[in-house]
Amino acid sequence: MLSKETQTFLIVAETGSFSKASQQLYLSPVAVMKQINQFETDIGVPLFSRSKRGVTLTAAGDNLYRETLKLQKESTAIIDHTRLLAAHKVTTIRVGTSLLRSCAPLIDLWSQQAALKADFQIQIVPFTDDGTGLHQLFQLLGKQIDCFVSPYDTVELTTQFAIQKLGAYQCQIGVPSQNKLSQKTSLSWQDLADQDLLLLKDGASHTIDAIRQEIKSRQIAVRIHDLPSFYDLSSFNRSVAENYLIEAIAPWQSIHPNLKFLNMPWAYEIPYGLVSAQNALPEVKAFIQTSRQLLSSGQTR
């Protein structure tokens, strides 16, 4: 990637002679001298001190020589990497992300795997969590977005898409800062009495349905208000605005500054995983398969 004149300059500097340089370049000494003269003219400073015994670098020439060696090394590395990429196909995987459905767990999974990252390149594609954004996401999945990470305990996700489980999030209760329960460090079932609670509508989530059923069986006098079949930012704004408790998961703790997430004495969890189209491309399936292997190897370490 170095110019012909620059390469000639390096050889003259290393041999200390136009004649010796000409032998390596298969040129006449006069031709080598003309190249160096023109090179010095283009740069605007003398690079060599000439004598009957040969040539030596000036201070400017010595600086240029050392910096050019660095450039030559970098150029060689760039060419080698370019050739490697040409011989090894890198697959780009488009991963959707949003505030409530962050791709962070997937990035964490891949961040320690330098060797495998050579096979795949992740492109982050943002989307919004409102109804319109989620509908567009589902429409674009397999077309402009290959996969996204999400809690998937909803009937809509589990029946329409392929899912690779990555883990599970603990279910908690979000408490508005103006609610008296926000002074607590954890909640009991009886703390829910005489409170308003936002839950996904009946039939939308197996886990949330189980929470509903336990509230009913415990005969807790809590007023339950339905959310749609998914969470978006308006769900948390509503919780704060109306002083309603809201069932949520641990990663959402920083989603609203006026909500405090507290643990309940239960074992309810919401699974989360990598969601993709059921007819995903082979390279996307390979990425998901590799993610599964990374997850398994991480769990056995």
Q: What's this model, at a glance?
A:
The chain contains eleven helices and eleven strands. It is α/β, with parallel strands linked by helices.
| CATH fold-type name of the largest domain | D-Maltodextrin-Binding Protein, domain 2
Please give the alpha-carbon distance between the first and last residues. Answer: 45 Å
Order of helices and strands: HHHEEHEHHEHEHEEHEHEEEH
In the CATH hierarchy, what is the class of the largest domain?
Alpha Beta
Family: Belongs to the LysR transcriptional regulatory family.
Protein name: HTH lysR-type domain-containing protein
GO molecular function: DNA binding; DNA-binding transcription factor activity
Organism: Secundilactobacillus collinoides (Lactobacillus collinoides)
Could you give the topology of this structure?
Elements: H1 4-15, H2 18-25, H3 29-43, E1 48-51, E2 54-57, H4 59-87, E3 91-97, H5 104-111, H6 114-117, E4 120-126, H7 131-140, E5 147-151, H8 155-160, E6 162-176, E7 196-200, H9 206-217, E8 223-227, H10 233-242, E9 245-249, E10 259-262, E11 269-276, H11 282-300
Parallel strand pairs: 3-4, 3-5, 7-8, 7-9
Antiparallel strand pairs: 1-2, 5-11, 6-9, 6-10, 6-11
List keywords for this structure.
301 residues, alpha/beta, Arc Repressor Mutant, subunit A, D-Maltodextrin-Binding Protein, domain 2, 2 domains, nine-stranded mixed sheet, 11 helices, 11 strands, 23% strand, elongated, DNA-binding, WH-like_DNA-bd_sf, LysR_HTH_N, DNA-binding transcription factor activity
Question: Can you offer a commentary on this structure?
Answer:
This protein folds into two domains: 4-87, Arc Repressor Mutant, subunit A (Orthogonal Bundle); 92-286, 3-Layer(aba) Sandwich (D-Maltodextrin-Binding Protein, domain 2). The chain is built from eleven helices and eleven strands. The protein has 301 residues and is α/β, with parallel strands linked by helices. The model has no long low-confidence stretch (mean pLDDT 89). The chain starts with a helix and ends with a helix. The strands form two sheets. Strands 3, 4, 5, 6, 7, 8, 9, 10 and 11 form a nine-stranded mixed sheet that branches. The chain is 44% helix and 23% strand. It comes from Secundilactobacillus collinoides. Residues 1-58 form the HTH lysR-type domain. This is HTH lysR-type domain-containing protein.
